């Protein structure tokens, strides 16, 4: 398969409670690359999950971006997920969408220029609002693509989590083909349990992997799922797929 081999890279969502030198040591000892981190979520105890689309929090977003970039540079990580954030509690989504989207676009344009100087790609990820997070602002691939078009920066890309896309829209084949030029990173999990790809569920990953390969996808695929057993056991699907592909 044309995508990078498994076991060679990891995502580290929020590494900020760990000293950079400790992560560097672990990376060097294992030979595993860090390929994706998230911007800081804000105050999670207060309900934050990202700040990029939250009006009035622009200064905090920029501070978080600088911290993320500090870690990314130290770890030679070339992708940062710029987390949009949630619709404020008590607000009507329809009433605040315009202001939040304007804030999102402006923050992404600022981030794109900062990241461009460091050779880093900024990613935005739609998260489903039906099961996972009812208040998350960015909730569909169509909305994300429209935001990317408004931002107009080549280093702002789409992070495709197949789990979220299937729940919100389905139509994965056509959406993959339509938005493929915008995709900078992919994550996988079975639906609805969010377990390993070969667990019981709605999705046939052998088909999706073959489709991605036929389209020339060569970037990383993150295994963002909850293993039903051990981590090692949950990677059996990959060994089976590689055997079947030979």
Question: What do you see in this structure?
Answer:
The protein has about 250 residues and is an alpha/beta fold. The chain is about 40% helix and about 15% strand. It is built from eight helices and seven strands. The protein has a seven-stranded parallel sheet. The mean pLDDT is about 95.
Quick summary of this structure?
The protein is an alpha/beta fold and 246 residues long. The chain has eight helices and seven strands. The protein is globular, with a radius of gyration of 18 Å.
Features:
246 residues, alpha/beta, 7-stranded parallel β-sheet, 8 helices, 13% strand, globular
Topology:
Blueprint lengths: L8 E4 L7 H11 L2 E6 L19 H18 L3 E3 L11 H24 L4 E4 L16 H11 L4 E6 H7 L3 H8 L3 E6 L16 H11 L5 E3 L12 H10 L1
Parallel strand pairs: 1-2, 2-3, 3-4, 4-5, 5-6, 6-7
Helix pairs in contact: 2-3, 3-4, 6-7
